[in-house]
Specification:
Helix 2 (60-67) crosses helix 3 (88-100). The strands form 2 sheets. A 7-stranded mixed β-sheet has the order 1-2-5-6-7-8-9. Strands 3-4 form a two-stranded antiparallel ribbon. It is of the alpha/beta class. Residues 1-9 have low confidence and may be disordered. It contains 8 helices and 9 strands. 39% of the residues are buried. A hairpin with a 2-residue loop joins strand 3 (46-47) and strand 4 (50-51). The protein has helices at 3-8, 60-67, 88-100, 114-118, 123-129, 142-149, 156-169, 187-197, and strands at residues 16-19, 22-25, 46-47, 50-51, 75-78, 106-110, 132-136, 173-179, 200-204. It has one domain: Alpha-Beta Barrel (TIM Barrel), CATH 3.20.20.70. Helix content is 34%, strand content 18%. The protein binds iron/sulfur cluster (SF4). Iron/sulfur cluster is lined by residues 31, 33-35, 38, 40, 81-83, 111.
Length: 210
Amino acid sequence: MPELSRRRERAEETLAYALHGSLYLNITYHCTLRCAFCPKFQGSWEVQHYDLLLTREPDAEQVLAAAGNPAAYKEIVFCGLGEPTLRLDTLLTVAQALKAQGARRIRVNTDGLANLVYGRDVTPELTVVVDAVSISLNAQDEMTYERHCRPKRLGAYQAALEFARQAKAHGIDVTLTAISGLEGVDIAACRRIADTLGVQFRQRELDAVG
Ligand code: SF4
């Protein structure tokens, strides 16, 4: 069945999903990267039993309706099978509303390429409503990053590192992440980069949301 037809047949889409006491928001299916390890490039949009396939980009009202009571969760995380900062206005609107409704902590899982995409530093806007960012660095050098993440734009690796610096400078809690087990990825070297930047580091497992 063609992909588009299959999408149109789905009645419900997962805009919000709960895991480990946190609420995850799935606001886009677009990406700046084309990661070779991404499930959507293996024909699957499923992550930890949640089908994250979207047929459309939800507006802020729809995301807020799906989120429910944000105070019920330890953390709200913008994270789906797409790059949330590609919908910066929606992200900021939703995050601001969730904060007003009692969200304790708001995090964005990101590729760190928003400044490259928008051609300006967006971290001053993020810091108003976002407490933390987890940036998928995924490699200890540009060549390894290009191999696994296949960015659509030039200069992505350096841009992600600069985004981490700017986010930290604007008071956002920054964590760099890398996935263990990818060929050529040196987790210890990724951790050293985080140490050099003065930010946190977390090793991730493939297909595990976090
Ligand atoms: S950034 Fe995430 S959703 Fe986008 S291609 Fe890479 S793994 Fe997939």
